[in-house]
UniProtKB/TrEMBL annotation:
Keyword Nuclease (UniProt): no
Record-level Gene Ontology MF annotations: ATP binding; phosphorelay sensor kinase activity
Species this protein is from: Paraglaciecola psychrophila 170
Reactions accelerated catalytically: ATP + protein L-histidine = ADP + protein N-phospho-L-histidine
SMART domains in UniProt: HATPase_c (SM00387), HisKA (SM00388)
Chief localisation class: membrane
EC nos: 2.7.13.3
Gene3D superfamilies according to UniProt: 1.10.287.130, Histidine kinase-like ATPase, C-terminal domain (3.30.565.10)
Name of the protein described by the UniProt record: histidine kinase
Catalytic class of the enzyme: transferase
């Protein structure tokens, strides 16, 4: 639930509860006030009745819907009764107010003895009239409030929305920030409550910017400090191998040395590439890319490796246009096709298939190698993980970063990598599935 809706419901609920609590209290107060007013009327009425000289006048008898009835007693005899069926005394012969039941309802009675005339005057009024009056008074007071609750809800909603506007602007500013934009956030008409939040966010951006800067410097330093000595090692190892050309034992050792240097160079390049394609830092320059042209360029760059193992590679299927970064997608396909060549025997087939399915574009790479067990499908995407470790069955050098890099690049493009067993070539099948957000033609 949003803060705006929560505050609106809470405030409206509190106002409604307070309104009904006030209505109940008002009802009690109205009843007390009505009791006092009507009791005063009954008391005044007794003085009026005792001073009437002609008690036989019919006009003294109220109509059936009259607001009160009365009796006058003298010398313990009923002289006048406003109701023909009422012959007994309405109340005890005792001064004051009381409540009694007669004529099928509850009455509030008042009795008063006038010594000068030796008369008892009884006056009664139905209690339901008092309740009706109190209910009408409280309904007249509360009804406008109840009718105004929907309007009040709208007003509260608008006021809460206005009050939360700075928070919404902060959310919009954060949403509009690019992945590499770690500049401080500034807002006009900033509320005091948001100042600590903005200060904390800006401090966080400052720390992240410093951390990313250090990581970038590390990548640059690593590229310089690691590539240069490795290149020197390669050259010296090559020269040393030529100098020891006639020594078979030394040649074998030099071969191991060269393979170790090559592996170390590969590890360094993959680590630097993995750092470059990290989703938190990478900002791809997306554009429309033709999948057939992309695959052709990657195959051309890897053709010497494929030809060295006398392998065949074919590109089949329907070309499509996708939205992405050409360099990173090229690295992804290069890893997939290079792995297919590495782990397939000599004189085997590698197939690259292009598919278009509904709103998805699929690039499938199949090989004729041993494949991967289904239980390892998830783990092979972990960094530095290799099936069997350094003792891989293929005896092919590797560092376990190729598929990890490929997965990161796929995530940059909102895509997915799916591993399975190739039905036709019996080796590994890897599908790059470009999900929604990519355009296909």
């Amino acid at each position: 639930m949003s803060i705006r809706r929560y505050l609106t419901l809470i405030l409206l609920s509190v106002i409604t509860l307070v309104t009904f609590a006030a209505a109940i209290q008002g009802y009690r107060g109205s009843m007390a006030k009505a009791t006092s007013v009507f009791d005063n009327e009954l008391r005044s009425l007794t003085y009026v009745l005792v001073n009437i000289t002609d008690l036989s006048t019919q006009s003294l008898a109220p109509q059936p819907d009259a607001a009160f009835i009365y009796q006058i007693w003298q010398h313990n005899q009923l002289i006048v009764s406003s109701h023909p069926e009422l012959k007994a005394a309405m109340s005890n012969f005792k001064n004051g107010f009381a409540e009694h039941n007669f004529l099928a309802q509850r009455w509030r009675t008042y009795a008063h003895f006038f010594e000068s005339d030796n008369k008892w005057v009884f006056v009664a009024q139905p209690l339901n009239r008092r309740f009706e009056l109190a209910e009408k008074m409280i309904l007249a007071a509360v009804t406008p409030l109840i009718l105004c609750i929907p309007l009040l809800a709208i007003i509260i909603f608008l006021l809460v929305s206005t009050g939360l506007r700075p928070l919404r602007l902060l959310s919009d500013n954060l949403r509009a920030k690019k992945a590499d934009d770690l500049s401080p956030i500034t807002q006009q008409n900033q509320q005091n409550e948001l100042s600590p939040v903005l200060e904390t966010l800006n401090q966080l951006f400052e720390r992240l910017n410093a951390a990313f800067s250090r990581e970038k410097r590390f990548a640059s330093d690593a590229a310089h400090e690691l590539r240069t000595p490795l290149s020197v090692l390669k050259i010296n190892a090559h020269n040393l191998k030529l100098a020891l050309n006639n020594n078979s034992t030394s040649n074998a050792n030099m071969q191991y040395l060269q393979e170790g240097i090559e592996r170390m160079s590969h590890v360094v390049e993959q680590i630097l590439l993995l750092n470059r394609t990290n989703p938190e830092q990478y900002q791809g320059q997306f554009k429309q890319i033709n999948t057939a042209s992309l695959c052709q360029n990657v195959i051309a760059s890897l053709f010497p490796q494929i030809e060295a193992k006398r392998q065949e590679i074919e590109l089949v299927g329907q070309s499509a246009s996708i939205l992405g970064d050409e360099f990173s997608l090229g690295i992804l396909l290069q890893n997939l096709i290079s792995n297919a060549s590495k782990y397939s025997p000599e004189e085997t087939l590698i197939r690259v298939t292009l598919k278009s399915l509904e709103q998805r574009v699929i690039i499938q790479v199949e090989d004729s190698g041993p494949g991967i067990d289904e239980s390892e499908y998830k783990r092979v995407f972990e960094r530095f993980y290799r099936i069997g470790g350094d003792r891989h069955d293929s005896n092919t050098p590797g560092c376990g970063l190729g598929l990890a890099i490929s997965k990161h690049i796929a995530e940059l493009h909102n895509a997915a990598l799916k591993l399975s067993r190739s039905e036709q070539l019996s080796g590994l099948s890897v599908e790059l599935i470009l999900l929604q957000g990519q355009s296909s033609e």
